[in-house]
Design goal:
mainly beta, Immunoglobulin-like, 14-stranded mixed sheet, 42 strands, 51% strand
C-alpha cells in the first residue's frame, strides 16, 4: 500500500512537472481578433438619468454587440445593442441603448443583485488587470436595477464560487423605456475598482439577455459551450490618456443589532443589544485589508431545508458576506465532492459535550486579500472564536494563507496553509485535537482558449500525534469543445489525512472518475441542442481486509435544451455501495437501519422538465422511480414559480419521497414543502418570506426578512424567525422564536 502511495505521488508530480515544462496551458486554437474600442476623456458633467440627450454622449465612440451566444453561434441577431463609454478623473460612464421590436420586457424583481435565468438585462465586464482571471461585472436593465458581481477563476464555471454576488460597489445606474428601445446609463467610480497605475487599456466585454427574441448577444465572441462571463474571450477598451492610480477609500461599516430569542425546548430566553462592524482598508492598487469585530450574521437568509438520503453531510452554501468577499482565494482548492480542504462555514461551528452541532460566537478577525503584483495574489484569513466551557467548546484561532501565482497565460501555481489551534489548554480537549494543520500545493490549468482546464494537487495534514499517512493528492483534467466534454479525475486520501476546517466524505480511499458528454446541434427546429452524458465514479480501497470496492456508480443522461430555454432530461442512476456501518437512509427509522458490512444496490430512472423561465408562470418538475438499497423508492420534486413583475416573485417547492425498504413493514413518506414570497416594493425596499416544512427533521420554519437600503450600501434589517416541532402524532409545539433589528451604515 505504501509503495502504491509513493508511486501515485510520483506520478502526480511528474505529470505536473511535464505540464509546466511543456507549457500545456498554451495549447489551443489560433486566437481570433477581438474587438477594440477607444474611450474618450471628458470634462463635462454627466447626469445619470437613463437617456442620451446630453451633448457629451454625441462625442463618444460607439460600438455594438457583434455575436449571438444563444441559441446559435452566429452574427445574425434581430435586436442590436449599442454602447458608448466615457471617463473622467473619477468615473467611468456607460450609455447602452438596447433596441427591440417589442416593449414586452421581463423584469423579475427590483431587488439589488437579483439573479434570473431569463430576464432582460445587460452586463458589463471589466478585467482591469488584463490577466483573464478576475474581473468586475456590473449589470442593469430598463428599470435601473443594480447588479454587481466579482468573477474569479477566469469564469470557467468549474466551481460555484466563480461568481460572487455578495460583493457590493457604490455606483449609479438608471434606465428608461422608449419606443423601440431602452437605455441603461451608469456611472462607476474608479475608486470602486483596483487596477495598475497608469493603465492605458483594459480587457472588456458586455452581453445582453433579450427575452423578446430568446437571444443572448455578446460584444466579443464567446463559444457557446462556455459561459457568457468567461474571461478567456474579451475585447479591449483603450483610454485616451492613461489612468492615474486606484484611489479606493477607507470604509467603516458599523452595526447595531437588537435581538430577542425564546428557546422553548430549553426553556430559555435572551434579549441582547450588540455592536460591531467591519473596516475596509485599501493597500496599493490591488490589495485590501478587512477587519471585523463581533460579526453578526443574524440577518443572513436561512438555509434551504434538504431531505438527505445519503450517509454523508450535504455542503450548504456560505451566505455570510464577510466570508464570501474574495472567497476564491480561500475556497477554490481541492476536488468537488471529494476533498474540500477549507470551507468557511466550519468557522463558528462546534460540537458541544453531547455531540450536537452548534453555532459558536466569532470574536473577530482579519482578511488580507488581493494582488501583490500583476501575477501574484495573496489571501490571508484569521478568525478567533469564543469558548463555551460549560458546553466543552474551546476557543480556536482559525488561520488560512493562500498564494496564487499566475503562470503562462491563465494558469496558476497555488500554495495553501491552514491552521486550526486552541488558544489555551482545556481539560476537555483531547491532545490530538489541540491543533490541525494542512499544507498543500496546486497547479490550476486553464488554457488560453479555455478548451483545457484541470487541477493537480497534493496536501499533507499534521496533528499532535504521529501521522503515518496524512497525505492526499489528485489530478483532474478536462477538455471541452463545442460538441464534446471529456474529463478524468483521480484522488487519493490517506488513512490519517485530516482537515478540521474542510469537508471530507471519506479518508483512506481512492476515487477514480471518468466523464464523457456529446452535444448534437439540429440545423432547425425548437431544440437548441441535445446532450448525451456518461459519468462514472469508483471509490475503492487497496489491501483492505473488509471490502475493496466502496462505491461503483454511474449516471447516464439525455438532455434536450430548447431555444426558449426550457429543458427536458432523462437520467439513469446505478450504484453499488458498501456500508461499513449500520445506516438508516430514511432518517426516521434509526432503530431499524440497514445492516452494515453489506453492499447495497440502487437503480433509479428519472425524468425532469423545466418550462420557459421567461414566462410569468413556469415550473420545474422531476419524477423518479426504481430500486433503492434493499427496497424501492418513488420521488417527485416540483417547483412552481409565479411572477407579478416587477414587484412579486412567488414560488412553491413540493418534494415527496416514498421509500419502501424490505426490512421495514411501513413505507417511509418524506415531505418537503416550501412556499416563498419575494416582494420588491422599490429598488431600495425588499421583503422576503420563506416557509419550510421538512418531515424528515420534523421541523416547520418561518423566516421573514425586511430589508431597506436607505443610503447606498447602508441597510436596515428586520428579521423574524419561528420554528416548530411537527410529529405525525401529537400537537405542533414551538421550538425557537426570534426577532432582531439590525442597522448597518457604510461610511
Amino acid at each position: 500500500m505504501l509503495n502504491l502511495i509513493k508511486q501515485t505521488t510520483k506520478f502526480i508530480h511528474l505529470f505536473l512537472l511535464g505540464l509546466i515544462l511543456f507549457g500545456f496551458s498554451h495549447i489551443g486554437l489560433a486566437q481570433e481578433i477581438y474587438p477594440n474600442m477607444n474611450v474618450k476623456f471628458t470634462s463635462s458633467a454627466i447626469t445619470i438619468d437613463g437617456d442620451d440627450l446630453e451633448e457629451v454622449w454625441k462625442t463618444a465612440d460607439s460600438t455594438y454587440t457583434g455575436w449571438t451566444h444563444f441559441p446559435n453561434e452566429s452574427t445574425d441577431f434581430k435586436n442590436p445593442t449599442q454602447l458608448k463609454l466615457l471617463y473622467d478623473d473619477k468615473n467611468i460612464y456607460l450609455m447602452c441603448k438596447a433596441f427591440s421590436a417589442s416593449n414586452d420586457y421581463v423584469i423579475p424583481s427590483l431587488k439589488w443583485d437579483f439573479s434570473g435565468k431569463a430576464s432582460d438585462k445587460i452586463n458589463f465586464i471589466f478585467d482591469t488587470f488584463s490577466d483573464g482571471n478576475i474581473a468586475y461585472m456590473f449589470g442593469s436593465n430598463m428599470a435601473g436595477v443594480k447588479s454587481d458581481i466579482l468573477i474569479s477563476n477566469g469564469g470557467v464555471s468549474t466551481a460555484k464560487n466563480d461568481i460572487n454576488r455578495t460583493w457590493d460597489a457604490k455606483f449609479e445606474v438608471e434606465g428608461q423605456i422608449f419606443p423601440g428601445y431602452y437605455i441603461v446609463e451608469m456611472r462607476i467610480p474608479l475608486s470602486t475598482l483596483s487596477f495598475p497605475k497608469g493603465s492605458a487599456s483594459w480587457r472588456f466585454n458586455f452581453f445582453r439577455f433579450d427575452t423578446t427574441e430568446y437571444q443572448r448577444t455578446t460584444w466579443a465572441r464567446i463559444p457557446q459551450e462556455f459561459k457568457d462571463y468567461n474571461l478567456a474571450f474579451m475585447g479591449k477598451i483603450h483610454f485616451e490618456k492613461p489612468l492615474g492610480k486606484s484611489n479606493a477609500n477607507i470604509s467603516v461599516i458599523p452595526f447595531i443589532n437588537a435581538i430577542t430569542i425564546n428557546n422553548f425546548e430549553n426553556e430559555t430566553a435572551l434579549k441582547d443589544l450588540s455592536i460591531g462592524g467591519d473596516i475596509k482598508v485599501p493597500i496599493g492598487n490591488g490589495l485590501n485589508l478587512d477587519l471585523t469585530y463581533n460579526p453578526d450574521f443574524s440577518q443572513v437568509e436561512v438555509d434551504d431545508e434538504i431531505v438527505n438520503l445519503r450517509r454523508f453531510e450535504i455542503k450548504l452554501p456560505e451566505k455570510r458576506q464577510f466570508f464570501l468577499q474574495n472567497s476564491d482565494l480561500f475556497s477554490n482548492f481541492g476536488a468537488i465532492r471529494t476533498i474540500t480542504p477549507f470551507f468557511t462555514r466550519r468557522i463558528g461551528l462546534a460540537r458541544d459535550a453531547q455531540g450536537n452541532l452548534v453555532e459558536n460566537d466569532i470574536i473577530g478577525g482579519i482578511r488580507l486579500s488581493g494582488k501583490i503584483s500583476n501575477g501574484l495574489k495573496i489571501g490571508l484569513l484569521s478568525m478567533l472564536t469564543n469558548d463555551d466551557v460549560a458546553n466543552e467548546i474551546p476557543s480556536n484561532l482559525n488561520t488560512v494563507l493562500s498564494l496564487n501565482q499566475k503562470v503562462f497565460n491563465r494558469s496558476a501555481l497555488k500554495f495553501l496553509f491552514i491552521n486550526r489551534e486552541t488558544t489555551k489548554d482545556y481539560d476537555f480537549v483531547d491532545q490530538n485535537d489541540t491543533f490541525n494543520r494542512l499544507i498543500g500545493l496546486e497547479y490550476d490549468l486553464n488554457s488560453i482558449d479555455n478548451i483545457w482546464n484541470g487541477r493537480f494537487f497534493t496536501y499533507n495534514s499534521f496533528s499532535p500525534l504521529k501521522n503515518e499517512n496524512g497525505f492526499s493528492g489528485g489530478v483532474r483534467v478536462k477538455k471541452e469543445t463545442r460538441t464534446q466534454e471529456i474529463s478524468f479525475e483521480y484522488s487519493y486520501l490517506g488513512d490519517d489525512f485530516r482537515s478540521d476546517l474542510g469537508i471530507l466524505r471519506r479518508i483512506g480511499v481512492s476515487k477514480f472518475c471518468p466523464y464523457y458528454a456529446h452535444k448534437f446541434y439540429p440545423k432547425k427546429g425548437k431544440v437548441n441542442y441535445y446532450r448525451l452524458a456518461y459519468y462514472h465514479w469508483l471509490w475503492f480501497k487497496l489491501n483492505s481486509s473488509t471490502e475493496n470496492i466502496l462505491e461503483n456508480n454511474f449516471l447516464a443522461s439525455f438532455r434536450a435544451i430548447y431555444t426558449n430555454q426550457s429543458e427536458l432530461e432523462f437520467r439513469i442512476y446505478n450504484a453499488n455501495e458498501y456500508f461499513p456501518n449500520d445506516f438508516d437512509p430514511t432518517g426516521i427509522n434509526s432503530e431499524t437501519p440497514l445492516v452494515g458490512g453489506n453492499t447495497y444496490h440502487t437503480n433509479i430512472f428519472e425524468i425532469s422538465y423545466s418550462s420557459n423561465p421567461a414566462k410569468d408562470f413556469y415550473f420545474i418538475a422531476a419524477q423518479s422511480y426504481g430500486k433503492f438499497y434493499d427496497g424501492k423508492k418513488y420521488s417527485f420534486e416540483n417547483s412552481i414559480f409565479f411572477r407579478f413583475q416587477p414587484k412579486l416573485l412567488a414560488s412553491v417547492k413540493l418534494n415527496y419521497d416514498a421509500i419502501k425498504l424490505n426490512h421495514l413493514e411501513k413505507t417511509a413518506k418524506l415531505w418537503l414543502v416550501g412556499p416563498k414570497f419575494d416582494f420588491s416594493f422599490t429598488k431600495k425596499l425588499y421583503w422576503a418570506t420563506l416557509i419550510q416544512f421538512n418531515s424528515q427533521s420534523e421541523n416547520l420554519g418561518v423566516n421573514s426578512r425586511l430589508q431597506w437600503r436607505f443610503k447606498g450600501l447602508s441597510n436596515l434589517f428586520l428579521v423574524y424567525n419561528d420554528n416548530y416541532l411537527v410529529r405525525e402524532t401529537g400537537p405542533i409545539s414551538p421550538r425557537m422564536r426570534s426577532l432582531n433589528l439590525k442597522i448597518t451604515y457604510w461610511f
